[in-house]
Amino acid sequence: MTTQSPALYPAFPVELLDEICQQCDQRRALLDLQLANSHLRPIAQRVLYRSITDISPSSMVSLFRSLCSSQITPRLVRELAIDWQMTCPTGNLYRLVNRTLRRLTFLKVLSIEPFRGRCDYRLVRMLDGCTFRLERLATSIPCDDNLAEFLNKQPLLRELDLHGHCLLSDSGSPLSPLALPQLASFRAVHAGPDLIERFVRGRPVRNVSLSLYPSQGLTSFYAIMQSTSPLVRLTIMSFELEPRFELLLRETARYMPSLQALHIVELQASYNTDMLLAAAPLLEYLPELRYITLISAGQEMDEAAERSVAIQWSKANPSIRTIILPRGKGWFQRDGAWLCWNDSSVVISSSRR
User: Fold this and answer.
1) Cα gap 240→242, rounded to integer Å
2) In whole angstroms, what is the distance from residue 143 CA to residue 145 CA?
3) 231-270 exposure pattern, b = at least 16 Cβ within 10 A, e = fewer
4) What's the alpha-carbon Rg for the chain, to the nearest Å?
5) pTM value?
6) Could you report the per-residue pLDDT of 158-213, keeping only the tens digit for each?
């Protein structure tokens, strides 16, 4: 009669072991797990390399060298975040990143935040030769013709977040009208109306974040009308000196009646209670609106004033569920009453639960 050695781990399904490994809060624990049990090694390895974020530049250099020398781990990476905002990269580092990215053939989510103090061609050249098909890209790399050429090869991209300045040529832009056919979310911090229109026109964009500058008026706002899908979420950062909320609300109701979330941040203008109460009737023309935010530079309203505004806005549009007003406090409805997140009644209710 033969006896079998005891199993090193319970005969759990691979899916359950994968879920257990995902609960490890520290990468060190996954590294130890790989060494402790050969049966769990491939499972821990998949979880360890699936998402690579929040890693210091020095650790990332060692990690990239490891990825370049391995035949297995590069295929496991699905998400990668590179943040060098406090570091000055060298030419060797750029080349190391490029070699690594070319090996990540199954990468889906990429975030690159380069050192803000320098801007040269090597930033975009890091993407040369990459064959992955991204679903989400966020970067401060300048939006130039080279980046546009890269985006032409990303048919699965759904979310695009551009923090860098626009350096696209005025004529003959390499961004193809057929590129980015699945783009659903577009955010551009420094983009003007021309760039916004280039990315939104003819694409099913439903979520847009843009900036309004005094010299441009509402041209950037009107540029997003070129989407082939109705907009459901809009975020606006305004640098205008004069309050624009009522005008933006009127134009939004006119052109985007299906909007579900509207967030406006005014960095220069300030508001008082009367101005916000006067805008309440316009909310009636946004029947699907659920979330609305207005953050402004000046705080001329106290909590009682904001409560009165929340009540009037909800009367004008009962579909609204959450409101954030100039003081930055969130308002929500409970048992027919509008409460602020810092209300004592809310704190007491939460503690009892």
Assistant:
1) 6
2) 7
3) bbbbbbbbebeebbbeebbebbbeebeebbbbbbebeebe
4) 25
5) 0.83
6) 999 998 877 666 555 688 999 999 999 999 988 888 889 999 999 999 999 998 88
- Which one-letter amino acid corresponds to residue 259? L
Contact indicator for 309, 273 with CB cutoff of 8 Å: yes
Contact 330, 306 (CB under 8 A): no
* CA distance linking residue 265 with residue 235, whole number of Å: 8
Pick the closest to residue 144 from 177, 167, 173, 163 (CA basis): 167
Maximum CA extent, the chain = 90
Tokens of 61: 């250099």
Q: Which contacts (CB < 8 Å, 24+ apart) does range 346-351 have? A: none
Q: What is the distance between the alpha carbons of residues 187 and 211, in angstroms, rounded to a whole number? A: 9
Rounded-to-integer distance, Cα 76 and Cα 78, Å: 6
Give the 3-state secondary structure of residue 293: strand
Q: Is the dihedral of CA 114, 119, 120, 125 positive or negative?
A: positive
Give CA–CA dist 86/187, Å, rounded: 23
Torsion, CA 221, CA 226, CA 227, CA 229, rounded to 10: 100
Question: Which long-range contacts does 333-340 make (Cβ < 8 Å, 24+ apart)?
Answer: 338/307, 338/310, 338/311, 338/314, 340/303, 340/306, 340/307
All residues at 6 or more sequence positions from 144 whose CB lies less than 8 Å from its CB, including other chains: 124, 167, 168
At 236-289, the pLDDT tens digits run 998 887 888 888 999 999 999 999 999 999 888 888 889 999 999 999 999 999
Closest CA to 183 of 164, 165, 162, 207: 207
Distance CA 74, CA 2 (A): 42
Residue pointed to by tokens 């990215």: 101
Q: Enumerate the β-bridge partners of residue 159.
A: 136, 185
